[in-house]
Amino acid sequence: MTRKSKKDKEALPKPESGETQAAFDAAAAAYAEAEAQGDMLQIIAPDGTIVRPDLLPAPEQRLELYRQMRRARHFDERGWVLYRQGRLGVFPPFGGMEASQVGTAAALTKNDWLFPTYRDTGAALTLGLPIARTLAYWRTSPHGWQMPADLKVLPFYIPIATQYPQAVGAALAEKRKGTQNVAMAFIGDGGSSEGDFHEALNFAGALNAPCIFILQNNGWAISVPTRTQTRATNLSKRAEGYGIAGVRVDGNDVLATWHVTSQAVARARRGEGPTLIETVTYRVKAHTVADDPSRYRTEADNAGWAEKDPVNRLRAHLLAEGILTEDGEAALLAEVAQEFEDALKEADSYPDPTPAEILEHVFAEPTPQLLRQQAELLAEVQG
Ligand SMILES: Cc1ncc(C[n+]2csc(CCOP(=O)(O)OP(=O)(O)O)c2C)c(N)n1
Ligand SMILES: [Mg+2]
């Protein structure tokens, strides 16, 4: 339990009686102990040393995962700057969670479905969502609402947990069509307290849906820490209650997230059903670029997470193994930066949206109700 300052204490939910306080403290202690035990798969340790040599993917695959994490981090870092310059809307940063998003999404192909939350820009970029469209989305422009025809990435979900049952539906549709395609859905620790999460897991288990559920446990749901969000100390174990596979993985080790997810995807393609994967990571940044986490958490809460940084970890490993050189990295970073600036230029060139577009892209064929609402809206803005 790391509730240290008075300010922090006040921000946390207050138990009402002594008895509740005891239960609350016991749950928090159990959570801290489970965290300390680290009962999760890890392939490389935070300092870059190899823990499981038997599970190392091919060098090219390791390098590709590094490249994708760098693309994601670059987007996140430039996103903050663009926001401060008034060139990007409010967006939820994901810096520090790249391994959790890149390693999982990299296990898919473009024939598979991806259901990301607002936090999962890194996952969507990995599967191939164009950077320009992603920037447009966070500018609330309709150009960001159109998904490329060759990609089954849904727009970033803002309402918590709704994507989970919908992903099961997509997975079942693929199964019924006789394909081997799978659906992958993301959720947060907070989202895993929602009814939709539990319904989706049961639904997927009962009908053996080829669905991969990624539960990113980043320690926080806005200002609520996971240790008070739930009394459960290992969220992957929730899978047992629904008779499906559940795995806990170091969410800051991209080789581990990729390994575990690739196995789950292969099982789903073989008709062996869904998997819940808890990626244990940390939201080192704010909830959104407009949030100030110093109001509800302390340095003690964040302790140790900078050292577990997923990008530095893989970098240390690649340099030690000679898979990456300093020069090679400089070239890679220049390429990543150029790709982003080109995409930014493209996003800047999109015409400003018109009010009529607000209700477009909802259905392939607009319903009579939508057409009526669109006419009303236009009459209002024009009149
Ligand atoms: C159905 C619903 N309820 C509440 C909210 C408000 N809300 C936005 S983010 C958030 C916390 C979610 O935390 P978590 O699931 O852990 O995801 P994270 O932000 O950490 O990625 C809440 C409650 C919402 N968007 N949707
Ligand atoms: Mg969270």
UniProtKB/TrEMBL annotation:
Residues 1-20 are annotated as: Disordered. Residues 7-17 have a biased composition (Basic and acidic residues). Its cofactor is thiamine diphosphate. CDD domains: TPP_E1_PDC_ADC_BCADC (cd02000). InterPro entries: Alpha-ketoacid_DH_E1_comp (IPR050771), DH_E1 (IPR001017), PdhA/BkdA (IPR017596), THDP-binding (IPR029061). Keywords: Oxidoreductase, Pyruvate, Thiamine pyrophosphate. Residues 67-355 form the Dehydrogenase E1 component domain. It comes from the Bacteria. Pfam families: E1_dh. Its EC number is 1.2.4.1. It catalyses: N(6)-[(R)-lipoyl]-L-lysyl-[protein] + pyruvate + H(+) = N(6)-[(R)-S(8)-acetyldihydrolipoyl]-L-lysyl-[protein] + CO2. Heterodimer of an alpha and a beta chain. The pyruvate dehydrogenase complex catalyzes the overall conversion of pyruvate to acetyl-CoA and CO(2). It contains multiple copies of three enzymatic components: pyruvate dehydrogenase (E1), dihydrolipoamide acetyltransferase (E2) and lipoamide dehydrogenase (E3). This is Pyruvate dehydrogenase E1 component subunit alpha. It comes from Deinococcus xinjiangensis. The lineage of its organism: Bacteria, Thermotogati, Deinococcota, Deinococci, Deinococcales.
